[in-house]
Structure formats: C-alpha cells, structure tokens
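With this grant's support, we have settled on a layout for protein records. An illustrative entry appears below exactly as we store it:
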Amino acid sequence: MTANQQDFGPTVEGARTALRDVLVVSVRDLSIQSHGRPLPLRLYTPAGPGPFAVLMFFHGGGWVTGDLDTHDGFCRVMCEWAGCAVVAVDYARPPEHVFPAAVDDCCAATEWVVEHGPAMGLDPSRMAVAGGGSGGGLAAVICQWAREHSRLSIIFQLLLYPLLDCLAQHPSHREFAEGFGLTGKMLEWYINHYVPKGVSRDDPRLSPLRHNHLRGLPPALIITSEQDVLRDEGREYVRRLTEADVPVQHKEYPGMLHGFINYPADSDDAKQALLLCAQSLQRHFHP
C-alpha cells in the first residue's frame, strides 16, 4: 500500500456506504397488512426536502419470480434521476397466492400510501404507477381501479413491455414464441401458475387491454421491445388509449428483447430508456 492510499481514509465498506447514500438518501423496508397477511414494501426517498411525489412500483417476473431485490436497481435510478419517492410493492406470489391476490395487494399498498404517505413526507396528490411485464399489467389495472375511487388520483402510468392480455392471441406471441428471451412456453407457465382454473382470462384485472372503458385514465408512457412476445399487446393498448383520448407516448426499441431495461450495462438503448422514464416522470410530477 502506498502512502497516498494510506492517507485516503475511509474503509472499503465506508466508501461503499457513502456512494449509496449519495444516490438515494434513504431506503426503508416496511410492512403493512393486506387481506390478513403481511405485505412488504420498500420505500426509496431522494435527497432534498419533501413532500415528494411518489411512484408506486410493481415488479415483473410473471407474478411468480420477481421480488423487491430483483428490481431494486430500477427503483434506485428512478428515485435519483426523477427526484421522487418510490414505493416498491412485494405483492403475494403464486402458487401460494393466486389471482386476485397480487391485484388486491397492489390496491392495498396504493390506498395505504394515500392514507399514511403524508406523515412520511410523501405527496399522494402527485402519484404515478410503473411496472414491467406482469408488473406493467398490474400498473394498468391499478389505474383502471383507481379511476373509480375518488380518494385516489394517479397522474401518470409508466408501462414497460407490459403483460396486458392473458389470452395471448396476438401475432407477436407466435412470431417470438421461441428464441427471444421470454418464450411462449414460459409465458404460459407463468399464467397457469397465477390464474386459477375456471377463472376467465379476459377478466380486466388479468387482461386490462380487454377493459371496455378506457376513457379518463391517466397519461401513459408505454415502452415496447421489438422482439418480444408481449410487443403487440403493448401496441394495441397504445391504440386503444389513443382512441379513448388518453394522452399516450409510445417508444419501441428495435432489436430489443423483453426486460432489456434491467441491463443498462449491456445496452445503450437500456440507458436511453431509463432516461426517458425519468424525464417523463419529472415532466408529470413537475409540470
């Protein structure tokens, strides 16, 4: 070790902690009650004085495999870059808890933030929702549900390659069924674990694309991947929202696979998509 290295000061762990503290001031794991069971949440709070606009985040992973840790990086980036608080929801997963448990938990978490958020430095009047894949579908469902609840006001929805139609009958489901990351067999495996036998897959809480009334929903940014089994349902939701006079921005990334945003070290497109997400949140939180 050189003299300069000896003079540097911090321990390795201290330096790592200092870097984390620069990026996000506070990360807290919380637990609330939802339908008689604990519901873990993770609250990310940015630097500066509150109250903060808040992003409700619902992780992907086909309802089955994701959790708070698998999407921690995205939440940290949105917290820092968009300057908002993020509440990540660790909703109950199948096969232990099947539909509609995930929807129920996302609703409960959103209502909890509206009720308790102000005491924690959050501003529920500036609330957005986000998610990727199955989490994107849940975000769309929460917007449709919140429209019917006067206490809730979601001002923006950020849907990343969302799973919006459990019937899986669009051309992209056939075109990219094999060899493009998320396969048709994997998608069916996820759906079969989540949806109980006898439940119709066209229920809007499973397939928000099939809701017959989309007018009055919050503005949206929908990101799709060109080579993704879910591509066409994202495109179709853009079309239907536009027809319903909902302001919607659509960005499709050529050559990208499902979930590409989770790998910014491997792709300039992923970095640009993260920046687009943060800029869109900033624009709606601070018009």
